[in-house]
Amino acid sequence: AFPKSWDPSQLLMYQVFWTGNSTDTGTVYWNLKGVACANDDAIDSALGTGVDVTDAHSGTANDLNVSAQSASVTVAGSPAADEEVFFNISRDADNASDTLTADARLLGIKLFFATDLPNDA
After folding, report:
1. Is the pLDDT of residue 47 over 90?
2. Which of 34, 27, 36, 87 is nearest to 57 (CA)?
3. Taking residues 84-104, what's their average pLDDT?
4. pLDDT at 32
5. At 101, phi and psi to the nearest 5?
6. Cβ(35)–Cβ(48) under 8 Å?
7. CA 20 to CA 120: how far, in whole Å?
8. Residues facing 17 on adjacent strands
9. How many helices (H) and strands (E) would you count in the chain?
10. Mean of per-residue pLDDT scores for the chain
11. CB–CB of 19/95 below 8 Å?
């Protein structure tokens, strides 16, 4: 769940931290989508439209790769304070833009979001 100070009317973006156990310098195609659920909402609700970000592997096995910041992600549902937000991040290895021939290991993501309150009190 986001803090109370989150402003869901503003942009939400992400950045991917990942690695590959390979010397391949191919590109990985990541996709993130999400949905906000309030109390008594069904948690199997449809996710919003996925937003893609691509990143090339450094060519050194097990190096940390950090993608560029994504475009804006629209969270489905009616995001508001005190709602849980579920995300799905995936690799689309079948996409023509995904050229890494090895496994990509997702290490984490960074979320960028705006706030509209000075604190969460």
Report:
1. yes
2. 27
3. 96
4. 98
5. -90, 0
6. yes
7. 38
8. 66, 108
9. 0, 6
10. 94
11. no
